[in-house]
Amino acid sequence: MQRLMCKGKLHRVRVTEADLDYVGSVTIDEKFMKKADIKPYEMVQITSLKNATRWKTYALPAPEGSKKICLNGPPAHLFSPGDIVIILSMAQMNEEEIENLRPKVVFFDENNDITGIEEHDLHWPGDVKV
User: Fold this and answer.
1) Which residues carry the post-translational modification Pyruvic acid (Ser), per the record (predicted)?
2) Residue 25 CB contacts under 8 Å (≥ 6 apart), including other chains
3) Is 48 labeled as catalytic in the residue annotation?
4) Does the N-terminal or the C-terminal CB of the chain have fewer CB atoms within 10 Å?
5) Which residues are known binding-site members?
6) Backbone angles phi, psi at 96, to 5 degrees
7) What residues are designated binding site for substrate?
């Protein structure tokens, strides 16, 4: 069986640009992509904290250090500079792959500076690892 798992997350990052006259995608600071294990052209889901809008598209790297989050093409109608979003990176995995999964969550402040990174073990609450 395959399961759709969250493998990386950019949590509460701010949109810096929205460019309607572009082919499509979301442009993300390369550093942010690396920290959340998002590869160029990987599909991601972007969710707005303002209005719960969700959009799926592929990620393209912006120059490292640019702090750029730019929604390109049609989602420029749905997301605006200053919006706080969550960007999820997901993967189809089998049970064996899931056993080795350590999802990464990258946290941001209001200036798109990284404030922390967490890696999570997968376990049920209350489970004791032996």
Assistant:
1) 25
2) 57, 58, 59, 60, 72, 73
3) no
4) C
5) 57
6) -65, -45
7) 57
Walking along the chain (130 residues) 10 residues at a time, the average pLDDT comes out as 96 97 91 97 97 96 97 94 98 94 97 97 67
Active-site residue, selected from the candidate residues 25, 41, 48, 89: 25
Helix or strand holding residue 34 (H, E) = helix 30-35
Give the active site residue among 58, 66, 80, 89. 58
In this prediction, residue 98 carries a pLDDT of: 93
Q: What is the DSSP string of 37-61?
A: T--TT-EEEEEETTT--EEEEEEEE
- The two tokens of residue 31 are 């550093």
9-92: CATH topology: Barwin-like endoglucanases (2.40.40)
Angstrom distance (rounded) from CA 31 to CA 16: 15
